[in-house]
Batch of 2 targets.
Target 1
Amino acid sequence: MALEIRQLIRAMSLANPLWGAPRIHGELLKLGIDIGQTSVAKYMARQRRPGSQGWKTFLCNHADGIAHGRMAIRNG
């Protein structure tokens, strides 16, 4: 696949973060670019999410509450 098409897919996915592979695939077809939807998904920019806090961070953040037995426990 041409580098320009891969760059276009990446640019479209970054500019439109709510668009998935089916939408970008459809837009490329409108432009006359014949490419498979799975190929579009492969070359889309990955959305990075911040990692969740680890146990060490959790314990440091809640050490005072744990030591004093004030941790709130939610049921349900």
Target 2
Amino acid sequence: MTCFVDGSDINAAMVSGGWALAFRRYSDVYADQEQESQRRQAGLWSGAFIALWDWRKRNQQTEILGALTVPLDAQNRLVPRPFASASSRTGCRIKGNISGNGVHIYHLPGQRDYDKTRITERKGERWFCTEDAAQAAGWRRARN
């Protein structure tokens, strides 16, 4: 999908400026612009970041993109251990589960599926201490 305003391709402008990525899963249309903005270290490419499509499932193995020399601590800054793997041992009892079709759902104690829900941190699942934290991370409450 493209977006033009007064004959200008807005998507191309954003990718060329380094403020968006080419979503190669569906098209290579903007791949050249992305490569050039990466070479120039423009926009997002001037620092360290995680691609949008990897953000929700991020874990300690997630690829960090960005500048030619990504800071050594970028992994810890972008995927801090307490955020990625708070455990029930710390008193955090809200289970952040990823469904088979990739939906991020959190379960509260007392909800129907809470007891049978297992957390697999290596798959990006996690524990939350508050509903606000779960929602801020992009998870939705279980409907049961």
